[in-house]
Amino acid sequence: MRASFVMSAMNVFGGKMIPAYNRVLLKVSGEMLAGDDGYGINPEVIQRFAAEIAEVKLLGIELALVIGGGNIFRGLAGASKGMDRAQADYMGMLATVINALALQDALEAEGCFTRVMSAISVDETAEPYIRRRAIRHIEKGRLVIFAAGTGNPYFSTDTGAALRAAEINADVILKATKVDGVYDKDPEIYDDAVKFTSLVHRDMLDKSLRVMDATAASLCMDNDIPIIVFNLQETGNIKRAICGENVGTLIASVAK
Length: 256
Description:
- By secondary structure, the protein is of the alpha/beta class.
- The protein has a single domain (22-252), classed as Acetylglutamate kinase-like (Carbamate kinase), CATH 3.40.1160.10.
- Helices cover 37% and strands 20% of the residues.
- The strands form 3 sheets. The chain has a 9-stranded mixed sheet with strand order 6-5-7-4-3-8-12-13-11, with helices on both faces.
């Protein structure tokens, strides 16, 4: 049984929030780093995000991050405009490395010890991804940023996040988005969109909810990895999610 279900509710002891999870993988889209600019890396946004992560680390949890690259280049977008899909995907992987390095710089300015581990070789800037080394970094309290997805074209960074979460035995995946959970349809388009407070893994596929692509959803389902989908733009939500507060939508093997 995962730690998430042993401590499923928010824990408060002596006024202090206690984590409901020990080892957490946080998945953040690259677009979140662009802020209102829509492209690139907004210094204020990444500084604010790094400060929030540094505060979360004070809870004593083990934390790893996966960052997308959509604020710089998205492989699918390139392929849709005539580029070779594999070539476009490799460009997208390089974009995630750029974001990971920027995030590392911001986190270290906040006093966090970090390591960037890349699934493709960029030896001058990041360590190669080696599972045992990654786990050792995490056990030593370092914040590991996984870059370049799975290292293979045709796979999304969501799939990369699900794979890394399974490999490091994460208790939960926190999927940070622009909305406050999972809806039956796009809440930015439909006023009558209904939010789910909890779902089972199979719902992601059966209901075509587009939380993750099918490969990532299947990985989470097969490895019994719970997912919390929440709004990153509300300050403090990362800590609330880690401490078991009802933030966003919980997706697990058993409905809550």
